Amino acid sequence: MSNAAKGQSIEEKQYLIRFKADTNSHLHVLDYDTCATKCPDKICTIFCPAEVYKWEDIRMHVGYEGCHECGSCRIGCPHENIKWEYPKGGHGIIFRLG
Amino acid sequence: MAEKFDVIVVGAGPAGTACAYTLAKNNVSVLLLERGEYPGSKNVMGGVLYRKMMEDIIPGFYKEAPIERPIVEQRFMMLDKESAATFSYKGMEWGKEPYNNFTVLRAKFDQWFADKAVEQGAVLVNETVALACIVENGRVVGVRTDRPEGDIYANVVVLADGVNSLLAKSLGFHKEFKPDEVALAVMEVLKLDKRIIEDRFNLEGDQGCTIEIFGDSTKGILGTAWLYTNKDSLNIGVGTMLSGLIKHKLKPYELLEYVKTHPMIRPYLQGTDQQEYLAHLIPEGGYRSMPRIVGDGVLVVGDAAQLVNAIHREGSNMAMTSGVVAAETIIEAIAAGDFTEKTLDVYKRRLLDSFVGEDLKKYKDATHHFEKYPHYFEQYIPMLNRAASQMFTVDGTSKREKQRKIWQGIGTAGEKMKIARDLFQAWRVMK
Fold this sequence. Notes:
Radius of gyration of chain A: 15 Å
Low-confidence stretches of chain B: none
Family (chain A): To ferredoxins from P.putida and C.tartarivorum, ferredoxin I from A.vinelandii, ferredoxin II from D.desulfuricans.
Mean pLDDT of chain A: 94
CATH superfamily of the largest domain in chain B: FAD/NAD(P)-binding domain
GO molecular function, one term (chain A): iron-sulfur cluster binding
Largest interface: A-B, 43 and 61 residues
Structural class of chain A: alpha+beta
Strand order of the largest sheet of chain A: 1-6
Pfam families (chain A): Fer4_ETF_QO
Number of helices of chain B: 16
Low-confidence stretches of chain A: none
Oligomer: heterodimer
Number of strands of chain A: 6
Function (chain A): Could be a 3Fe-4S cluster-containing protein.
Number of helices of chain A: 4
Strand content of chain B: 25-35%
Organism (chain A): Paenibacillus selenitireducens
CATH class of chain A: Alpha Beta
Number of domains of chain B: 3
CATH class of the largest domain in chain B: Alpha Beta
Shape of chain B: globular
Distance between the termini of chain A: 24 Å
């Protein structure tokens, strides 16, 4: 099972993918206070398949560079607190296979 | 870039490309917009492409298209923690023409398909986001792109922009989808020697096998996992309703790891190397979640129209059919010189009368039913596994006694009644 044991973490999975990150984020938390004070679960940090959203002590960090552009955060945020756009044409994730 | 086309198609997936191909073939000027570096670079699918609907567009396509394997066996695993009850159908008729379905890798297949549309005369422009529809007097007359001076005009705009159809939403065709209307799927492509795949899955030559995995693969919540054979790789994935992940606070990639290391699945993956990790949403709300799909100068096709049959893992075929029906409607509209909603509404009627509409209506309550009553996955699949284990374990107990114990194990008379009711309800939403 040597190979199967590799690549378990999300960081290792993300390394497999080609990204062409834009300089500007296509994901915007509308109100950072809402994350801090009204959202104890911070569920986006759990269901996001690329761990784009990370709670860092007092503030939501958005690592848009690793986004799969799936749209889950926009639909799943209980406070509709995420403004979601497509990255600029040709940017963002570039799947080679699947 | 020419300023005006007969038609602009937004999105070069199966729906958009099918539409653009059909239009171009009939000498309609069509612009196919793709936001990715190339068609397919943003697209993900478990991997099964159905032959019929693709062949309606390009006869004999599989002779030259980048397909992986024609599927000759479809297995269905009912998974418990340390066991599985499996049902399978394998038929040699699927291994030869006319074939039933194929595994494909979408980044490769979508590029090929879009090139075919270009050969017919469609203009493909990559790396371009359609930011908004241009609306004049309530009629869609073009799209605004993210290119400099990027306004382009057309008689009809076809929205094939996928599950996150921001354009259809901005036109007010649908509200934001809810977490119980979309499934989040994550998948890995795992490299494995061709010979080993054939040995491991009991295949000859280029034949392929698909395995759908229910039950413990999603820890009892609504969804499925899948394991498909490509030429020299495997696709292993798991998809659950987004609402299920939220409710159970599950990380999708951890669920995928759970599936990959499950004792019933692990042996299939031995010695593989990860090639790619992919995530995507699937519109699984079905008929009840279908948005408005026709307006003045605009049609909605494919995932953007929620055309997915989750029960039978069909989507790309429905997408293609919707693209073709949209194209045929537009060709008639051009002949009539009328692009109003009233004329274009033929698209909706024909789509709903086709297998697409019929199947969506047939299963309109299925997803909601299984979402609402999780015990089908939580309780009945383990129950089936226990029954199989008891019945087939030879320990000196008579078969009649075994049957009696299995029957007792199901529970009290009341619990049996509940199961009977559940089975009846399941039949009702699936019939």
